[in-house]
Specification:
heterodimer, A: 120 residues, mainly alpha, 2 domains, 7% strand, B: 298 residues, alpha/beta, Rossmann fold, six-stranded mixed beta sheet, 10 helices, 29% strand
């Protein structure tokens, strides 16, 4: 479900965070669905449980998951858009746009992409 | 909690431990790293009660380790050169372990038999080096220890077995809160399994932090300055700088955000913060301690 890339320069906890976030955002993990327990994930990935706990805590702080004491962690249903994540993604889009412009992609083409996204 | 305070151990006047101080919080996985001959194995032999320190304190859970059988029954260790009786089979060694560890679990032993898939009637000395290591893990984990002390534990294990063994150890940490101290040179692997790291050199612990702290306190930046700025501004606290073409690679002792903010003042064309791997942290931390790869052409 989550795969770790050992050649990735991102720290392990960030890879876990990004992996889980992707599952939640794409809907692969339904709202209120239970996430694997820290222990299960630690044995499955052979990773320190505290590292996984850190990823869970940060995801909870960002609002992607919530935890119920004694029951575990669950995917959040309605996402309160997280400001920090939004900023991060927008920076990435800006970088991409700069590169696309350099390659000669016109604004019309870029706008067309945005419209396409709207329809789906 | 494992605590070592100002431990000194001399062999013929050579101080293998020279005022070592180290703390392993309960329930954590502590990675002990350091160059060859730093004193890691010597320290581990103190933790398992094989050596007695000349001075200082070595305590586990608040108790002295030396000659403390009740405490040692709760510590399982896999030393670098694991000992077994010459003619013994796995089953014989299991009986030997069972005699010393009251918490030894036969149920676990049987379960782990399936995992390791080694015939328990085989003589251990006829097994390969890697299989002997597997037997060591098999028996150590069957002891249900509260403390697990591992010296270069996965040396000689194949990649599948390494993951298998770490998965078992991590399961124990998550489930039973086992405290683990592991020495290794494989920093890539330690990064996955450890939450605390201590760097040792010349019989001392130079630095000990939680992995999260280590990663948040040092950053690697790739920077391209605007025309006219050819040198790294001298007022920046840079630990290490190198340059390829226009791209400067800077190592700074601060978190990524702070570093990016400080560089923003110079209005660079590009700033890219990359987290450091444990291997890089190790190299840069020890670089200050007069230890680096020397450029020698043979």
């Amino acid at each position: 479900m989550i795969s770790l890339n050992y050649r990735d320069s991102r720290p392990i906890y960030e890879q876990i965070k990004d992996g889980l976030r992707k599952l939640i955002v794409t809907g692969a993990m339904a709202p209120d669905e239970k996430l694997p327990s820290v222990r299960a994930l630690a044995t499955q990935l052979s990773i320190n449980p505290n590292t996984i706990q850190r990823a869970y805590n940060e995801l909870e702080g960002e609002g992607y998951i919530y935890s119920v004491p004694g029951k575990g962690s669950f995917a959040s249903g309605n996402m309160d858009a997280d400001a920090a994540r939004r900023k991060e993604l927008l920076t990435r889009v800006r970088e991409l746009v700069t590169e696309l412009r350099y390659l000669g992609v016109t604004d019309e083409e870029l706008l067309a992409i945005l419209k396409e996204e709207d329809k789906t | 909690m494992i605590e070592v305070r100002d431990a000194v151990k001399k062999f013929d006047g050579f101080a293998a431990l020279d005022g070592t101080t180290l703390t392993v919080p309960a329930g954590s996985v502590y990675g002990l790293v350091g160059p060859n001959g730093a004193g890691k194995s010597t320290l581990i032999r103190h933790l398992t009660g094989i050596y007695r320190q000349d001075s200082g304190e070595v305590t586990i859970g608040g108790e002295q380790v030396w000659e403390n059988a009740a405490l040692k029954a709760r510590i399982a260790a896999i030393p670098d050169d694991w000992y077994f009786f010459m003619q013994s089979t796995v089953r014989d060694m299991m009986r030997f372990y069972k005699g010393f560890y009251p918490s030894f679990s036969m149920e676990r032993y049987e379960k782990l038999k399936e995992v390791f898939n080694i015939d328990e009637k085989r003589a251990i000395r006829r097994l390969s080096k890697g299989m002997q290591k597997q037997v060591a893990f098999w028996l150590a984990l069957s002891c249900m220890p509260d403390y697990l002390v591992l010296d270069e534990p996965v040396d000689g294990l194949d990649p599948v077995m390494r993951r298998q063994v770490w998965s078992l150890v991590m399961g124990d940490v998550a489930q039973r809160g086992t405290t683990v101290l592991v020495s290794s040179h494989n920093l890539r692997e330690l990064e996955d399994v450890c939450d605390h790291v201590g760097i040792m050199d010349h019989g001392r612990v130079l630095l000990e932090r939680s992995l999260a702290q280590l990663q948040d306190n040092m950053v690697k930046l790739q920077v391209v300055f605007r025309d006219g700025v050819n040198e790294v501004p001298p007022e920046l606290p840079v630990l290490h700088a190198s340059r390829v073409g226009r791209i400067h690679t800077l190592i700074m002792r601060m978190n990524a955000e702070e570093a990016t903010d400080r560089l923003a003042a110079y209005d660079p064309l590009l700033v890219d913060a990359v987290p450091l791997t444990l291997e890089e942290i190790f190299i840069y931390e020890l670089g200050g301690a007069d230890y680096a790869v020397k450029d020698i052409v043979l």
